[in-house]
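wait is this the right file?? whatever heres the structure
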């Protein structure tokens, strides 16, 4: 009887080993036979482990089969992505402090979120910077990945996927202007030849397709965005034919964000030729947002800020907005804050030290300026309080 028990035990062990090795992309070696340990491997909540390389991140996500699972990356690693990483439905990607970068010449959406997915605790840096922060930099110039450009984004959400919830938490998103390839005067400072950052930070997009589209109940919290052409872009291009359902990007929440030197901070745009009930960018909420133009440089900012907020649509609100302008005369001729003629019932509460232009061309918008704002008003009713 003892021999039979031993044989049964060995048989069970062999079956478990076969199942483990057969998991797609799973490591086929024992952890104790290498320098790896459970903290240096990619793992998921199915209990599977993978070697820490870029290709295995997608394998670990797909291995969850949409079962409300989590993928954990080892901390302190850099992963170079050549294809968009798709976080499938009901999956959480916890980057654990690691970062995603793009090889030189690669221009893609870095991460795409699906319904009920989450990305947290990481860095996405598409600048391609290679320097130690000192002057002169190593080599002849600072190295930047100027191939990253619009319409690519660090984090992309497609309304045709019909997203009804998703989360972006504790992330640092960085791009860079092309100005880092050029020297300013002595003492050395930097300037940009086109004054624009590169690509988008977070992009919520409804394209002009003949299918119902939705992005709603997205929660974005504690995110740092630096030097993009547009930091957060909500863009509804839908033009539904008669009898077709439209596209809706609405009821999304953004809190505790810091924009540093983005060319255009928040832009909300829709096809204004279509009724707002069928092409909606409504009731999106932004709260506790800081904008800083950047430290002084040859042309006025490390990366130049041309606009802070631009909104179409209905009922979009911007509360507790802090705008800090340490450079001055950096925005050219356009408004820093622009409520377009398509906007209605939108709300703005902004304070801080600012030098810029505000334009309110919409209807029934409520704008409240608090603090030492030096604002030149184009149109609309503005209520100013404070010094």
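ok assuming it is, sequence goes like this
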């Amino acid at each position: 009887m003892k021999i039979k028990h031993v044989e049964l035990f060995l048989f069970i062990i062999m079956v478990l080993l076969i199942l483990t090795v057969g998991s797609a992309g799973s490591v086929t070696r024992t952890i104790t036979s290498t320098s790896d340990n459970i903290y240096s491997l990619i793992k998921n909540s199915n209990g599977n482990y993978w070697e820490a390389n870029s290709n295995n991140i997608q394998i670990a996500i797909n291995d969850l089969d949409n079962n409300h699972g989590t993928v954990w990356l080892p901390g302190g690693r850099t992963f170079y992505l050549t294809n968009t990483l798709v976080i499938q439905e009901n999956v959480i990607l916890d980057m654990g402090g690691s970062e995603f970068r793009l090889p030189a010449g690669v221009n893609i959406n870095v991460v795409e979120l699906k319904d009920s997915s989450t990305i947290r605790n990481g860095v996405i840096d598409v600048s391609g910077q290679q320097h130690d922060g000192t002057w002169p930099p190593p080599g002849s110039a600072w190295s930047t990945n100027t191939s990253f450009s619009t319409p690519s984004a660090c984090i992309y959400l497609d309304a045709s996927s019909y997203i009804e919830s998703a989360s972006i938490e504790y992330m640092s998103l960085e791009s860079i202007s092309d100005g880092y390839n050029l020297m300013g005067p002595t003492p050395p400072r930097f300037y940009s030849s086109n004054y624009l950052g590169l690509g988008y930070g977070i992009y919520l997009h409804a394209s002009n397709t003949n299918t119902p589209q939705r992005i709603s109940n997205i929660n974005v919290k504690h995110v740092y965005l630096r030097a993009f052409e547009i930091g957060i872009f909500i863009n509804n291009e839908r033009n539904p034919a008669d009898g077709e359902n439209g596209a809706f990007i609405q009821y999304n929440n953004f809190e505790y964000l810091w924009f540093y030197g983005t060319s255009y901070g928040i832009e909300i745009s829709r096809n204004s030729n279509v009724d707002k009930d069928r092409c909606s960018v409504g009731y999106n909420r932004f709260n506790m947002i800081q904008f800083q133009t950047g430290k002084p440089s040859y042309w006025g900012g490390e990366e130049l800020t041309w606009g802070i907020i631009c909104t179409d649509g209905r009922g979009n609100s911007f509360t507790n907005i802090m705008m800090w302008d340490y450079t001055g005369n950096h925005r050219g001729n356009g408004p820093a804050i622009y409520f377009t003629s398509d906007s209605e019932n939108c709300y703005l509460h902004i304070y801080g030290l600012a030098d810029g232009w505000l334009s309110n061309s919409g209807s029934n918008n409520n704008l409240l300026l608090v603090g030492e704002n030096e604002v030149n008003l184009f149109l609309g009713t503005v209520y100013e309080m404070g010094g």
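Helices lie at 2-22, 54-62. so i think its the right one actually
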